[in-house]
Every structure is written in structure tokens, then in C-alpha cells.
# Entry
Amino acid sequence: MLLWRRLAALRGERTPRRLRAGGPGPGPGPGRKSDGGGAPRPLYMDVQATTPLDPRVLDSMLPYLTAYYGNPHSRTHAYGWESEAAMEKARQQVADLIGADSREIIFTSGATESNNMAIKGVARFYKSRKKHIITTQTEHKCVLDSCRSLETEGFHITYLPVKKSGLIDLKELEAAFQPDTSLVSVMTVNNEIGVKQPIHDIGEICRAHKVFFHTDAAQAIGKIPMDVNNMKIDLMSISGHKIYGPKGVGALYVRRRPRVRLEPLQSGGGQERGLRSGTVPTPLAVGLGAACEVAQQEMEYDHKRISQLAERLVTKIMSEVPDVVMNGDQEHRYPVLAHQLLWSLPMFCGQLEQMKTWLTHLLDLALVVSLQKKKWIIQCRSAYST
Amino acid sequence: MAASSRDQVLRLYRALLRESQRFSSYNYRTYAIRRIRDAFRENKNIADSEKIEELLNKAKANLEVIQRQGTIDHMYATEKLIIERPGNT
# Structure
């Protein structure tokens, strides 16, 4: 038994056996006992990765998963019309959240697809004259990977470094522009450390240089007010499952005035203005729309509540845990993304077990603890949940 | 007029809180209760009867959402969270 545990630890298995022991494996189901049937579930703190569905969002989606199942592109009958009406309503809800026109919203399968569409689409459309793209080193993997794949097509990419605070240096950005720059891509709020980039300023700079500005706003949407006109954003990626909406849906905002042209990634029947062919999943789109509407209504209230919680978390940890360093800029961060506070704690190997027990007992949280050389890097992702 | 409106508001408030208690998910339950309390508290001094009617309609719609979603949540209930010790919410 003891040998098994040691082997499991060496293999790096993190799920303790006791959690797997309860109930018929992972997965829900009506047959599953609820009270006292199995081991208690851990507290969810990885809200940066995904969020649960808001009940209001699920409520708006269910009719389109059960009764109103028509294809929104079916022009000839009532099932199609009602589905299309719901899809257009959702489009308007998304547009309202970011101050855009509903014709500028394209539904996609998520922010990854939106990022791919924006970067590869713009780059390839203008490739005859413009072959340069600027981005940062802290972008999401899908942005960095899209840029890497463009490099093999003959584009050259500038990856701007970030300062110690996690923010980019605007002077470096200015210096990076070239006559053949077609696109600048900077994410609004970082998903690892929660810093908020100066989007207003970057938008101004890009407008002055007549270069398109794309921002991956997956973590920012619905949490901080975004306005594509104030911030001079030309392309914006939106993710459904980061704002208490369904997984598998996102949106791309594509400015119409001045028109941003994209080469479509996905060929087909010409849906979504020809930019993203494929049947729009009505229930998911409706869910995204509802999530955006709820987010807009609740933004102020939620911001206040989460700021309180984040303040408490940060203050307590910084004051009571010794030798802690918080990564990322203190000022220019989104307080809710105290969601993603990375702390570094110097630790001696001998005190390992003791520290682990103390922390688990003290915080009673589901922490991901990993050992790097002689330091514990504790990734504490605090939850949005009350 | 004011008295019956007041009764209506109170009845809705109690009904909303009662239905919210039925959520089996800790997250949904605590959020719903807190949100309902804060929303009613925030709007308690509104005098304009049109605005009151609009808010009441919104509350009724939300009550229906909570009733439906409470039932669904109950159907797909799972184990309690580790922090839901007896005595907590």
C-alpha cells in the first residue's frame, strides 16, 4: 500500500485516491447519490481556466436545446426563422456589451478560433503589401502559435518583451512599427498574472500608425467595461466560457468602419458574412448572448464584491505568510484576477511536509503545489464563487 | 395602493429567498441569496410606481428562472463541497 503511494507520487499523480473512491467515477448523472454518497468535492478555485454556467444562461439555452431546434440558416420555415431570431438577438447582446454594432460580431467556436481568424486572416489578406506583425511575449498560446505558423509563410513577427510588472513598454511598441506592419495583437488582461495592459494608449498608437489593433479580451469581457470605439480596437476575441457562458462558443468583433478585411479560415456556405462558414450553434450562441447581457447588468455589483474578496485574500496572505512575493503589477491589474495570484515562497526542503500541512490546514483550499528547485511556487487561483 | 404594493414586494422577496434555498449547488445557492438580498436592499427607497412595477416584473421573471433552475440543479445534484460543513450555508 505504502509502496503504491510512493510510486503514485513519483508518477506525479495528483488526485488522491480518496477522492476517486467515492461514487462511480467522474461524471454526473441522475443516478448518482448526492448527500453523503461520496467524498466531498474540492473547492473550485481555477476560475481563470473556466467558469460554471450561470443559471440564467442555462435557462435561456434550454428551449433551444429541446423545443426550438431549427437551423438558423433555414430561410424557408418557422423553425429556421425562430432560431435565426434568437441568434440575432444574441448577436445584439454581445455587441451591446462592447459598444459595437451587431453586424460586426461573428460567432466562432471560442477565443482560440477567434484569435486564429484575426491574426492569420488579417495577415494573409494584406500579405501582398504588409508582412510584419507585432505581438507580445505573454500572449496566449494560440496567438503565439498562429504567429509562429505565419513565420513559416514568410511573415516576420516582433515579440515585444514585457517589463517586470507584466506590462508592455509603449516606447518599445512605437519603435517596433515598420512601414509594412499590418497588425498589432496585445491581450487586454493576462490570463496568467492578471495584469491589465494599457489598451487605450495602444489603440491610439495603432490608429496613429494606421495599423489594425487586435486584442484578446477573453479574460476582460464582462469584468471591466470595454468599448471598441473608445479604445480604438479593430478586432476583439471573446470567449463564452470565461464569462459564465457555455463552452464551445466565442465571438470575434470585426470592425466595419474603417473596414477590416479578413481571409476566412473556414470555407463553406458563406455564413457569418463569409468569414466563418458553418451552422451557428443556436443554443450556444443564445447562451453567449445571455452571458454577455447578465455580465453587463451585473458588472458593477460583481466588481465591488470581487474587489472586496480579492483585497481580503491578498492582504491576509501578504501579511500573514512570510516571504511572499506577488507576481505582476500591483496597480494595473484586474482585482478579480487576484484570480491568478502567483506567489513565490522560499522554502527549505526539510520543512516541506510541515509547510504543506500548515498551508492546507490554514487555507483549506485546493492548491496546486509544485516544487521547483528549493522554492515552492504556489499557484493560488481564487474563485469567483461567493 | 402603497400597502398592497409593499405586501407584493415582501411576498416576492420571501418567495425568491425560499426558492433559492433549494439550489443544491453551493455556488448558485449562496450567490442567489446574496444577490436577492442586495438587490432588494438597494431598491428599497424607490418611489416611482412605474419603476417599482418594472422591478417587480423583473423579480417575478427571476423567480421563475430560479424555480426551474433549482429543480434542474436538484436533479443533477452531486456531492457537497468540502467547505459545506454542517452549520455553514
In short: Residues 17-26, 28-34, 336-350, 360-386 of chain A have pLDDT under 50 and may be disordered. Chain A touches chain B through 24 residues (CB under 8 Å). DSSP finds ten helices and eleven strands in chain A. The two ends of chain A are 39 Å apart (CA to CA).
